[in-house]
Design brief:
35% of the residues are buried. The protein has one domain: Rossmann fold. It is built from five helices and six strands; from the N terminus they run βαβαβαβαββα. 28% of the residues lie in helices and 15% in strands. The protein has a six-stranded parallel sheet with strand order 3-2-1-4-5-6. It is an alpha/beta fold and 189 residues long.
Amino acid sequence: MTSEFFSVGTIPQCRCVFFDRDGVVNRSPGEGYVLSPDAFILNDGIGEALRLLHENNVLAVLVTSQKCVGKGLISRSDLDAIHARMQELLAEQGTAFDAIYVNRGDGDADDYPAKPDPGMILAAAERFSIDLRQSWMIGDADRDISMARAARLEGAIRILGEKEVTVSADYSLLETKELFELLRITLKL
């Protein structure tokens, strides 16, 4: 029987792709918020992209700002129900997110800092031993791309949509169904 011992700094690290939620994982609610599980509509290609990542031992982590909780529009349990619905829809496609990190804007001690602060990414990196220099962010807003830069990720992909672009990403796509091919090429999967 053999044992492996790792000294500090030699623990194997994994790659990860971080996903924003609204406008990337699900249809954008526009200026408002997704306020119920029934209003959550999964975007085309997300399940396929997550399966590709998992088949190649790459983590998929959701990092999302949902200030609707802090604004009193929904409760934490409502938000949990929306995320449970998201995971159910993905499970129907044979996949799911490995973890979910949320800024709720409620100021509670367990709330993560708002984007573009990289706190959600850094917390996931610590928990899962993620190599940020080999990890990517997929978002639809400047704050997503800025968060990726602040965390010093390898790169960022923007899904173009309703939001103005003032911070450039490494790649921009018109639709989420294009993610599979771009991830396959970019991450060499």
